[in-house]
Amino acid sequence: MTDAWDSAGYIASSRYRRAVCRYLSEHGSGLPSRIAAETNLAQPHVSRALSELREREIVELLVPESQQKGRLYGLTDLGELAYERVALDQEAEVTVVDPGNFPSPELIEELELSYGDSLRAVVWCEPVQTWVRFFSPSLADRYDEETMKTLVSTLTNEEALDEPLAELSIGAPDLVAFAIEETLVVRIPLDDEVKLLVSLDVEFDTVISDLRETCQQLTTMALDS
Length: 225
Fold this sequence. Notes:
There is one protein chain. By secondary structure, the protein is an alpha+beta fold. Helices cover 48% and strands 19% of the residues. A hairpin with a 5-residue loop joins strand 7 (183-189) and strand 8 (195-201). Helix 1 (2-12) crosses helix 5. It is elongated.
């Protein structure tokens, strides 16, 4: 289950990988040239995405390795499961905001003071509305609305991780950390319907439980309102 979860996050973090997996999910298999033509992507982007996905065992080559023409690709069982997670409901409205319009401005201020340049983004997730605060313009430019919706939907999906862990004697986790490419994303539940995603540089070395306590303490007023 964790492999599918990690793979879903990897697919969701790139529009090229997402488009390739969507095509393969809908058509069963595909040639790089056909995928490129039908997704309106440049073939080098498609070829690179297929290579990346194959390295992660999300996609497999369906013809012999020695065959140079007609190289047909398809999703692996892991890839099919991971893409199902990515394709979950993405109807929540996503809004990029400045600190004053974030549901808990005090939290933004404290996180900036505490974690400085390690901080990449903070996302407040409710069932029909999501607020995103980026901490650099260049980072905000990397993510279009569809990509943000996909990432939020994937990373807040409870079924993928929390329920299996809840069956263990230790009980369900009260926070979960994901490593996606060069980013660490920490998911912190605030109540039954509200979750916080805090994105940091992967080299982040502060104790994660301290981050959780800071977030939970500073969001009480926003939840009550």
